[in-house]
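debug: dumping io for the single-chain case to check the tokenizer round-trip. Nothing else runs in this session.
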Amino acid sequence: MNRTLHYVISFVVLIVLQLLIFNNIQFSGYVNPYVYVMFILILPMAIPSWILLLLSFMTGFVIDIFSGTMGVHAFATVMAGFVRPWVISLNVTAEASEPEASPSSKTSGLRWFFIYTVTVVFIHHLSLFFIEVFSFSNFFHTLLRVLLSTAVTTFFIVLFDIIRPRR
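debug: decoded output
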């Protein structure tokens, strides 16, 4: 029960931070940090796939409702939730192999968590921005947005992971 409450609080805090602060940050239209993706990243490693995808959809759907983006974030978060187990299996370490463990820099090491975060956030942002523009006509412009936003989002997620309280 305590663990569930921890995830509910994390969900609410990340959604509120995204809606009130990070949705208002834009640097020349190139950098849009989406820290709410951290909720998907910190879920337990052994979470059943269907629950992971359901929570991913719910997270994106809540952002879509408050942002008026009509399913763009839901698609991107489901994509991130879909690739997450694959990214974890490629990079699993001895410390991170506990099924109930939540991926973090403390349990898995900063290097592992950084690579894991960059990979999932990049896939999320790639799908989000290309669905958003729904065109390959400005491919390199969109790719630059993906790369810069991934860098800034990853910075904030790793920072939040370092300062977040542990259970």
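debug: round-trip ok. Residues 76 and 124 are 5 Å apart (CA to CA).
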